[in-house]
UniProtKB/TrEMBL annotation:
SMART domains: Flavokinase. This is Riboflavin biosynthesis protein. Pfam families: FAD_syn (PF06574), Flavokinase (PF01687). It comes from Paenibacillus profundus. It is an enzyme of class 2 (transferase).
């Protein structure tokens, strides 16, 4: 998959130099959830049927973040994570539009004209897609304006349990620690990738060494608590237990949670390595313990609980990380 950066103005060479007959998917696609997957698959099917390459156009930073919504400075799928997932889906091109105040002033009609200028023959969008200055453009308007240039396929909403699947809903699930629902809506485990860094080394002294992870991108961090997880080191997935927390047993006044994973049946020095953590199931909230012995007893119980839950998931659910290629 080729990644192509685009920016305003729309007659810049970044746009004019990549003209090619193609299918184009439009949207922000934070999360690339099950609803997004349906939209993308419609485009891939059309491209295969008509012998056309398929591109996807997304925007970064998130428009809501540019307009002051600080919670949108973090992502379900930050840029590199999004690129990894989309590449596996079989797209030919990924257009990443730099969204800034200049691009925000582009009218809906000018944007439609720019899409036409790319050589696009067919556009696939979700039913609620909006574009142009202040979101003035609607899916139906794009269909009308593209009449002489491209056809438009408007994909209806995708629902789970009677509610529309959306990035907003997934963000809410992650904030609440409902990782089971978040993973169901995503259609895959929620992943955080980052470098293993030095921490307090306290875990090793109590028999539970942990990999402290510094996320490589601005991921949304799930709610503070303890989770069953799978961790990919090199080319191998290991079962483990994940702690996202403020370590109240040892510290006070902390505001930034640490991310640390204890890997089962693993004993290697991986400082400086990049690992991927798949957050699989919520076990419990973070607690403050009165003694180290109480903490050790609880971690032992957490590890056993995580082993049991992961074994059950691998036997019967879609959440088997071993099948995922990264």
């Amino acid at each position: 998959m080729e990644t192509i950066p685009l920016h305003a103005p729309l007659d810049d060479t970044s746009w004019t130099s990549c003209r090619q007959p193609q299918v184009l998917v439009l949207g922000h696609f934070d999360g690339i959830h099950t609803g997004h997957a349906q939209v993308i698959q419609r485009a891939l099917d059309y491209g295969a049927e008509h012998g056309l390459p398929v591109g996807l156009m997304t925007f970064h930073p998130h428009p809501k973040g540019v307009f002051g919504r600080s919670e949108y400075h973090r992502y379900v799928t930050p840029p590199m994570e999004k690129e990894r997932i989309l590449s596996r889906m079989g797209l030919d091109r990924l257009y990443v539009v730099q969204f800034d105040m200049s691009f925000a002033q582009v009218s809906a009609q000018k944007f439609a004209e720019a899409v036409c200028a790319l050589g696009v023959k067919h556009v696939v969008i979700g039913f609620d897609y909006r574009f142009g200055h202040r979101g003035e453009g609607t899916a139906e308007m794009l269909k009308d304006w593209g009449n002489d240039c491209f056809t438009v396929d408007i994909v209806p909403a995708h629902s789970e349990d009677g509610t529309k699947v959306s990035s907003t809903r997934i963000r809410q699930c992650l904030a609440q620690g409902d990782i089971t629902k978040a993973n169901q809506l995503l259609g895959r485990p929620y992943l955080i990738q980052g470098e293993v860094i030095h921490g307090d080394a306290r875990g090793r002294t109590i028999g539970f060494p942990t990999a402290n992870v510094n996320p490589e991108e601005p991921y949304i961090i799930p709610a503070i608590g303890v989770y069953a997880a799978k961790v990919k080191v090199g080319g191998t997935w290991y079962d483990g237990v994940l702690s996202i927390g403020l370590k109240p047993t040892f510290k006070s006044g902390e505001t930034v949670p640490t991310i640390e994973a204890h890997l089962f049946d693993f004993d290697a020095d991986i400082y400086g390595e990049t690992i991927a953590i798949a957050v699989m199931d919520y076990i419990r909230s973070e607690q403050k313990f009165n003694s180290i012995q109480d903490l050790i007893a609880q971690i032992t119980a957490d590890a056993e609980e995580a082993r049991q839950r992961l074994a059950a998931m691998d036997a019967e659910s879609m959440f088997s990380c071993a099948a995922q290629e990264r």
